[in-house]
TrEMBL record:
It is found in: Cell membrane. InterPro entries: MFS, MFS_dom, MFS_trans_sf. It holds the Pfam family MFS_1. Gene3D superfamilies: MFS general substrate transporter like domains. The chain crosses the membrane at residues 29-50, 62-82, 94-113, 119-141, 153-175, 181-199, 211-229, 235-252, 273-295, 307-327, 339-362, 409-433. This is MFS transporter. SUPFAM superfamilies: MFS general substrate transporter (SSF103473). PANTHER family: MAJOR FACILITATOR SUPERFAMILY MULTIDRUG TRANSPORTER MFSC (PTHR42718). The lineage of its organism: Bacteria, Bacillati, Actinomycetota, Actinomycetes, Streptosporangiales. Keywords: Membrane, Transmembrane, Transmembrane helix, Transport.
Length: 436
């Protein structure tokens, strides 16, 4: 048998990949998972490092919020178009470029001389991360052409990447205790190199899909200005955000290749899923930000990371339970259960932090895997990829707004706001499903 790594693996539509050894495909799947693991890890790992970051580079709460949200703003804004970029230039090229850029910019971030430079580099990291998600999924689809095998592969991919949430606070605490906040970025470099090594010989054909760059620019500008309006409470920014929202809608409607086709948004099931996704990430990311600042008044970085285990551990194993529930009962019951647990968890987070975190952890791990299935099922035929990309984008918007809004409020008030949002999302889903 010829050595498979002596030449590129061409994942053309007419070439069967079932002849590849299982171990060969598994190693490539692990490499793809590692790339997106990095992306998700960086949404949480920096949170525990914020006090050390502030002591080193200075800056107020607003600056720390931008260090977190600068990443999620660009990540969210670029996700809808990242799929089109992957199709146009080839998923293997886009994934490799995203992972390589992530490693390089992480290295530069570790050397950032001040908070302003770090915020800019975090925004670039978000752009690199956006390239990794749709391209990795496109490669997995080609690598596992048999539906049953593909389902198991995507399950493994989700489990590996889902562990990033569980590992983030703990890993961040350990890294900060050893090497300060800069170590949080340095650890990305060897992981990125390993990911590139494992997927180096995969090739996916490009399709030449059109991209509306003007619409994408409007989306980025809108999210950035909206976040600035919330973080810094600027009336001028709020007005500018409203104007950009109108311009963005006009550009999308006139575009021959819109980033978000109107038929997708028109589906009630998709809209309800997007609302729920935004609420989940609002509560999760905003809660992590508020709890970190609160816990580190009394605990060191390692102890803070360990204190988050009630929240993060359920996300490492409960998605497997959620998958079985979705298969048996459909996606709606697990999502409703998750939103209910999130509502209760946010209300309990201030008086009983460990109980609040435990409920939030189970709420997130019930909601998110089921939401992906629900949105894809509700999408029009042939638009599942666009719908799933839009869900991920809206989730990151929710995360951005969660940090911006909750970070500017007192702890108790912040969690009441998050609980109210999760409750509204649950009622919207329940009432909407009853009418349909």
């Amino acid at each position: 048998m010829p050595r498979l790594w002596a030449h590129p693996i061409l994942l053309e539509s007419h070439v069967s990949t079932q002849t590849l050894p299982i171990s060969s495909r598994a190693s490539r799947l692990f490499g793809l998972s590692l790339g997106y693991f990095l992306v998700l890890l960086d949404t949480t790992v920096l949170t525990v490092a914020l006090p050390d970051l502030r002591a080193s580079l200075g800056g107020g709460v607003a600056g720390l919020q931008w260090a977190v949200t600068g990443y999620t703003v660009t990540f969210a804004a670029l996700l809808p178009t990242a799929g089109a970029v992957s199709d146009r230039f080839g998923a293997h090229r886009v994934f490799a470029a995203g992972v390589a850029a992530f490693g390089l910019v992480s290295l530069l971030s570790a050397a950032a001389p001040n908070l302003s430079v770090l915020v800019v580099l975090r925004a670039v990291l978000g752009a690199a991360g956006a390239l990794c998600l749709p391209s990795s999924l496109a490669i997995i689809t080609r690598l596992y052409p048999v539906p049953a095998e593909r389902g198991r592969a995507l399950g493994a991919w989700a489990a590996i990447t889902g562990c990033a949430l569980a590992a983030g606070p703990v890993a961040g605490g350990l890294l900060v205790s050893v090497g300060g906040w800069r170590a949080v970025f340095l650890v990305n470099v060897p992981v990125a190199l390993l990911s590139l090594l494992l997927v180096r010989d995969i090739r996916v054909p490009a399709t030449g899909r059109d991209i509306d760059w003007w619409a994408q620019l409007m989306a980025c500008a809108f999210l950035a200005v909206l976040t600035d309006a919330i973080v810094d409470r600027r009336v001028v920014s709020a007005i500018a955000a409203a104007v950009l929202a109108v311009v963005m809608v006009v550009v999308e409607r006139r575009s021959a290749s819109p980033a978000v086709p109107g038929a997708v948004i028109a589906e009630p099931g998709v809209r309800r899923g997007l609302i729920a996704g935004a609420a989940v990430n609002f509560a999760l990311s905003g809660g992590l930000f508020v709890l970190t600042l609160s816990l580190q008044r009394h605990l060191g970085p390692v102890a803070t990371g360990l204190a988050f285990l009630p929240l993060t551990l359920p996300t490492a194993f409960n998605p497997l339970v959620t998958g079985r529930l979705v298969a048996r009962y459909g996606p709606r019951p697990p999502v409703l259960a998750g939103l209910t647990l999130l509502t209760l968890g946010c209300l309990a987070a201030t008086p009983v932090p460990w109980l609040g975190m435990l409920l939030i952890g189970f709420g997130v791990s019930f909601s998110l895997p089921a939401l992906v299935t629900g949105v894809v099922q509700a999408a029009p035929e042939g638009a599942a990829g666009v719908a799933s990309g839009l869900l991920n984008a809206v989730r990151q918007v929710g995360a951005t707004l969660g940090v911006a809004v909750m970070g500017g409020l007192a702890s108790g008030t912040a969690f009441v706001v998050a609980a109210a949002l999760c409750l509204v999302a649950a009622l919207t889903l329940a009432l909407g499903a009853r009418r349909s």
